[in-house]
Amino acid sequence: MAQYKPIPFGVEDFKVVIDKGSYYVDKTNMIWELLDDNAMVHLFTRPRRFGKTLNMSMLQRFFEKKDKNNAYLFDGLNISQAGEKYMQHQGQFSVISLSLKSMKQRNYAEAFGCFKDVLQKEFWQHRDVFESDTILPKYKKLFSSICNDKAPDSEYKTAIRTLSDRLYAAYQKKVIILIDEYDVPLKASHFRGFYDEMVDLIHSVFESALKTNPYLEFGVLTGCL
């Protein structure tokens, strides 16, 4: 009797899909396309339920440097057959990964609160950088204020750039930034009447993180727009 792999309905973590032996449509060619492209920022727009978040998870699992090597996740997939030119990048970068899907709130204050929550969780993922004995006290204070919701709003608007700066200082390697569902807060704010405020926020965040960031290796954004 033929053995069929389970279809991972609703699973957005690439590692979970592979570890559980679920059916996976191989899209790892995205990796070499990103590496071969000279663009600093890549935007992928597709309809909902098209696998964008799973692809972002796949990119994170490939590039992110972790104590436990994730190379086994790509065994037998297209990227593993592409040669050392590409596989040498596996597990070699700090990755900042954010999803803005929670920012579909009733007003700007609530949406900005969700944005701060997203940033706090990402800063906490990289807490070892800020807990180092070699880091300046001002950065320890900044880490504490962001994670404890005590930083001024301006600090959150440039927080991705700040985190990039600290990761580069710690590892002497530029960072990869992944931002999933960037369009969600823009759509929600349009229908709820605070679009101008949200545009100003997104502009500030993206400009500092993706346009004027000297510590950026490359960035990837996904959305439906």
How is this structure best described in words?
With 225 residues, the chain is α/β, with parallel strands linked by helices. Helices cover 48% and strands 11% of the residues. It contains eleven helices and four strands. A four-stranded parallel sheet has the order 1-4-3-2, with helices on both faces. The model has no long low-confidence stretch (mean pLDDT 92).
Could you give the topology of this structure?
Blueprint (H helix, E strand, L loop, with lengths): L13 H6 L9 H8 L4 E5 L6 H12 L20 H4 L7 E5 L8 H18 L1 H4 L6 H11 L5 H5 L1 H13 L3 E6 L3 H9 L2 H17 L4 E8 L2
Parallel strand pairs: 1-4, 2-3, 3-4
Helix pairs in contact: 9-11, 10-11
What would the keywords be for this entry?
48% helix; alpha/beta
Distance between the termini: 44 Å
What characterizes the major β-sheet? 4 strands, parallel
> Which regions have little confidence, pLDDT < 50, spanning 5+ residues?
none
Q: Total number of helical segments?
A: 11
In short:
By secondary structure, this protein is of the alpha/beta class. It has helices at 14-19, 29-36, 52-63, 84-87, 108-125, 127-130, 137-147, 153-157, 159-171, 184-192, 195-211, and strands at 41-45, 95-99, 175-180, 216-223.
